[in-house]
Amino acid sequence: MAENDRLDFAKSAPKAFRALVGFDAAARAGLAPALVELIQIRASHLNHCAYCLHMHTNDARRAGESEDRLHMVPVWREAPHFFTAQERAALALTEAVTLVADRGVPADVYAEAAAHFDDGELAQVLALILAINTWNRIALSTAKTAGTDER
Q1: How far is the C-alpha of 92 from the C-alpha of 112, rounded, in Å?
Q2: Is the pLDDT of residue 1 over 70?
Q3: Cβ-contact 11, 119 below 8 angstroms
Q4: What percent of the chain has pLDDT over 70?
Q5: Thinking of the domain 34-141, which architecture would CATH place it in?
Q6: Domain boundaries, given as residue ranges, for the chain
Q7: Which ranges constitute the DSSP H helices of 65-118?
Q8: pTM of the model
């Protein structure tokens, strides 16, 4: 099977796909749209998922996100003034959870996120991080092409 002949996950596993769509919708419920996109963009950077990165930067632009902030997401620690303290805490948690095999989720990263979100919000943020990491892995495994968003 050639790389471009990989399966269509949605068609080949429709129940799993629909469950993931539902999980994703539940995860983002109640979170600020800008925060949702920042989390999805940062995880997609870390996972080298061009398909999801293209999709979520476009979604962020349509939602009114500035080009300046979009350009600063990969280097948010060097440009903290572009992001709120809550957004920085979410970005740090996104990095830790996405790269969990490297060093787990450090206590200080978790504590900082917990200081900026109540338990319900923190659970939503974690669920969103888990969802985008799953989407990234599906897109990468099935060789989705950036710019071909079928939504």
Answers
A1: 9
A2: no
A3: no
A4: 96
A5: Up-down Bundle (1.20)
A6: 34-141
A7: 67-72, 85-98, 100-103, 107-116
A8: 0.94
